[in-house]
């Protein structure tokens, strides 16, 4: 059986270029177009496929640890390249099934003529399939990491949008807070408020909470901390937009806003700072 495995492996290696061409013909048109679209030359693609098929052939008659290392390195390089260039994971995984199809076609004639025993073919499958499965696993890991990076970037951008600071004029800005405030967002409001107030060299920051539906002791406590911290930095803070239902809830919870400068509207806060409405008559 060892001789049969070597024969099959050597035949795969010998015909690796032809098999790579056959593989290219089986690939999705979209897959090949994507590769070319992102500047991956045809010779590079053929080099990947030729080497991959060669290594799989070598696995049947050479040291499997050494072959495994070569396959892992190649699969990692291919996986990163195609992931970065917009090839979907579905197409990447599907391409491996085409590799299996092309390789089994190498000895179709021998199978039809019963030149190999069933145990030999079973051994071929036991050797080759785990390598192909490992390639799929490597691709999946690479795509998972890439997806997480994209989600982190998107989440960071979303967080920045959720706590904007809008400059009004030199030294004055408004932080409109809209929606539910959980522990994480509360900490983000604190961090953003302090960092941007220093960066923008603010003298006044208006916290507008007219878009906040629910106020509990945790949220109020963090707002107080932000106000006191800004005060230490020399930034005067005005809290605006307290809704009637929030005012009622605050009284019930014993939340005391008397130590904070509050105004009913943003307009009132701006007037206190020094803005006035001028009407052309």
Low-confidence regions:
277-281
What's the end-to-end separation, in Å? 103 Å
Strand order of the largest sheet: 1-2-3-4-5
Elements, N to C (H/E): HHHHHHHHEEHEHEHEH
> How large a portion of the residues is in β-strands, by DSSP E?
5-15%
Largest sheet: 5 strands, mixed
Structural class: alpha/beta
Layout: helices, strands, pairs:
Elements: H1 2-14, H2 16-26, H3 29-37, H4 42-58, H5 64-84, H6 89-104, H7 108-112, H8 118-162, E1 166-169, E2 172-178, H9 183-199, E3 204-211, H10 217-232, E4 236-240, H11 244-253, E5 261-263, H12 266-273
Parallel strand pairs: 2-3, 3-4, 4-5
Antiparallel strand pairs: 1-2
Helix pairs in contact: 1-4, 2-4, 2-6, 4-5, 5-8, 6-8, 9-10
What does this protein look like?
By secondary structure, the chain is an alpha/beta fold. It is built from twelve helices and five strands. It has helices spanning 2-14, 16-26, 29-37, 42-58, 64-84, 89-104, 108-112, 118-162, 183-199, 217-232, 244-253, 266-273; strands spanning 166-169, 172-178, 204-211, 236-240, 261-263. Strands 1-2-3-4-5 form a five-stranded mixed beta sheet, with helices on both faces. Helix 10 links the parallel strand 3 (204-211) and strand 4 (236-240). Helix 1 packs antiparallel against helix 4 and helix 5 (64-84) runs parallel beside helix 8 (118-162). Mean pLDDT is 84; it is low at 277-281.
């Amino acid at each position: 059986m060892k001789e049969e495995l070597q024969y099959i492996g050597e035949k795969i290696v010998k015909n690796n270029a032809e098999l790579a061409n056959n593989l290219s013909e089986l690939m999705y048109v979209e897959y090949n177009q994507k590769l070319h679209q992102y500047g991956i030359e045809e010779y590079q693609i053929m080099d990947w496929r030729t080497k991959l098929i060669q290594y799989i052939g070598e696995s049947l008659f050479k040291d499997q640890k050494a072959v495994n290392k070569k396959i892992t390195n190649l699969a990692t390089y291919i996986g990163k390249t195609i992931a970065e260039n917009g090839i979907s994971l579905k197409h990447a995984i599907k391409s491996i099934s085409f590799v299996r199809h092309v390789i089994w076609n190498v000895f179709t004639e021998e199978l039809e003529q019963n030149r190999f025993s069933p145990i030999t073919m079973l051994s071929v499958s036991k050797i080759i399939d785990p390598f192909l499965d490992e390639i799929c696993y490597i691709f999946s890991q690479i795509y998972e990491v890439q997806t997480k990076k994209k989600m982190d970037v998107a989440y960071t951008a979303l967080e920045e949008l959720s706590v904007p600071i809008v400059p009004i004029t030199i030294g004055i800005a408004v932080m409109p807070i809209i929606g539910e405030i959980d522990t994480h967002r509360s900490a983000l409001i604190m961090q953003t408020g302090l960092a941007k107030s220093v960066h923008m060299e603010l003298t006044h920051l208006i916290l507008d909470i007219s878009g906040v539906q629910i106020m509990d002791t945790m949220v109020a406590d963090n707002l107080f901390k932000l106000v006191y911290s800004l005060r230490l930095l020399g930034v005067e803070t005005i809290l605006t937009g307290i809704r009637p239902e929030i005012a009622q809830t605050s009284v019930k919870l014993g939340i005391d806003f008397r130590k904070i400068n509050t105004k009913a509207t943003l307009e009132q806060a701006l007037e206190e700072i020094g803005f006035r409405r001028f009407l052309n008559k």
